[in-house]
Structure formats: structure tokens, C-alpha cells
């Protein structure tokens, strides 16, 4: 793919993100409410999608733009001792699913990222999350794909894997922006008005 083709594909993915910005804002606001209420975010992905998943958790545990309370978020691939033990003892498809069953609680969120939407270990994690009554959200590549079909909500972006992955980072930042805005607005409510 030439640079011109790559950039043209990127523009198409960004147009899709612009069209679905409302969904990313809604996810961010819902996620903020869950996390401030004591819930947890679990993220999964492979390769570059794992890096995006960990980027999201880092922004929530640390901060994105605004100074705010730390929020509970775990990138399951980053639990390397657990991950390697699970893969060794139970096989690669259980890499994330077993961790979801260990850490996820009803009402928590599992956020899955996959450019293909076909990763067996990510699909197994979503199934485990559904069984454990977690909310399941996904960022994927083009439809149709099994991950988008398996999740409660999904945003599928057009383009080749590299473009989709780059657009996923923009989506992650839009979610973080919405989280910061929601938590910041909550902090500005006077104590007597909040009770």
C-alpha cells in the first residue's frame, strides 16, 4: 500500500469515528460511572491491539488530561506470570478467559480490541465475560466479524489492519476524554448537592 492509499484509508476510518463519536462518548461516560462506583475495566487484545488495550488502562489508572482519582483498569496480557502459566496449563485460548473469570465481577466492563475480530483468545474472553455478567464492548476491524457479533456493543472500523489499529488509538483517546469530562464534572458538584 502506498502512502497515499494508507492516508486515504485513514481518512475513511476517521470519518467513521466522527460518525460514531457519540458512541465513544457514551462508552466513556458509562465507563466513568462504573469505575467511580467501584467497578473495574478489563482489557484484552493481541500484538498491537494489546498495546492499545494497555494504553487505555494506563490512561485510566494514571490520567489522560485532567488530574482526577485513579480508576481501576487491568490489561490482562500484561499479567505475564499469570498469562504464561494459563497458556502452559490450559492452552492459548484460555489466556484471557481464565483471568476474566478471576477478576471480573457483574457490572464490570471487558473491553476487547482486535483488528480482525477473529482472535480465539479474545472471543473466549468475551464468552467468559458474558457468563460472568460483565458488559462487553469491542473495537474491531471491518464487519462482519465474530467479535463484533459476540459483544454487547462494538464499533467496527474500515480498512487494513494497520489503519484500523491507528484509528483504534484515536477511539481510545476519545473514550478517555469522555471519562475525564464525566469524572471532572462529578468533582465539581458541591457535596450538599451530591447527597
3D architecture notes:
The protein has 195 residues and is an alpha/beta fold. The protein is built from nine helices and five strands, in the order H-H-E-H-E-H-H-E-H-E-H-E-H-H. A five-stranded parallel beta sheet has the order 2-1-3-4-5, sandwiched between helices. Strand 4, helix 7 and strand 5 form a beta-alpha-beta unit. The model has no long low-confidence stretch (mean pLDDT 94).
Written as H for each helix and E for each strand, in order along the chain, the element string is: HHEHEHHEHEHEHH
Structural class by SSE content: alpha/beta
Biggest sheet architecture: 5 strands, parallel
What fraction of the residues are assigned to beta strands by DSSP? 5-15%
- Counting DSSP H or I runs of 4 or more residues, the number of helices is 9
Radius of gyration from the alpha-carbon trace, in angstroms: 17 Å
Strand order of the largest sheet: 2-1-3-4-5
Distance between the termini: 57 Å
Summarize model confidence as the mean pLDDT: 94
Number of E-type strands: 5
Kindly state the percentage of residues in helix. 55-70%
In short:
The protein has 195 residues and is of the alpha/beta class.
Question: How do the helices and strands line up, and which of them pair or pack?
Answer:
Layout: H1 3-19, H2 21-36, E1 41-44, H3 48-61, E2 73-75, H4 80-90, H5 97-103, E3 109-114, H6 120-131, E4 135-140, H7 146-150, E5 153-156, H8 161-188, H9 191-194
Parallel strand pairs: 1-2, 1-3, 3-4, 4-5
Amino acid at each position: 500500500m502506498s502512502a497515499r492509499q494508507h492516508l486515504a484509508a485513514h481518512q475513511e476510518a476517521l470519518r467513521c469515528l466522527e460518525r460514531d463519536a457519540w458512541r465513544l462518548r457514551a462508552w466513556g461516560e458509562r465507563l466513568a460511572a462504573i469505575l467511580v462506583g467501584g467497578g473495574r475495566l478489563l482489557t484484552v487484545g493481541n500484538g498491537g491491539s494489546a498495546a492499545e488495550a494497555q494504553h487505555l488502562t494506563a490512561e485510566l489508572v494514571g490520567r489522560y488530561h485532567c488530574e482526577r482519582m485513579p480508576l481501576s483498569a487491568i490489561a490482562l496480557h500484561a499479567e505475564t506470570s499469570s498469562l504464561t502459566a494459563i497458556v502452559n496449563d490450559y492452552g492459548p485460548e484460555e489466556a484471557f478467559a481464565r483471568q476474566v473469570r478471576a477478576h471480573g465481577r457483574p457490572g464490570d466492563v471487558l473491553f476487547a480490541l482486535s483488528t480482525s475480530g477473529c482472535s480465539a483468545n479474545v472471543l473466549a474472553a468475551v464468552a467468559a465475560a458474558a457468563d460472568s455478567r460483565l458488559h462487553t464492548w469491542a473495537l474491531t476491524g471491518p464487519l462482519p466479524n465474530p467479535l463484533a457479533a459476540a459483544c454487547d456493543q462494538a464499533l467496527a472500523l474500515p480498512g487494513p489492519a494497520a489503519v484500523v489499529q491507528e484509528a483504534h488509538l484515536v477511539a481510545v483517546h476519545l473514550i478517555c476524554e469522555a471519562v475525564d469530562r464525566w469524572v471532572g464534572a462529578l468533582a465539581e458538584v458541591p457535596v450538599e448537592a451530591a447527597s
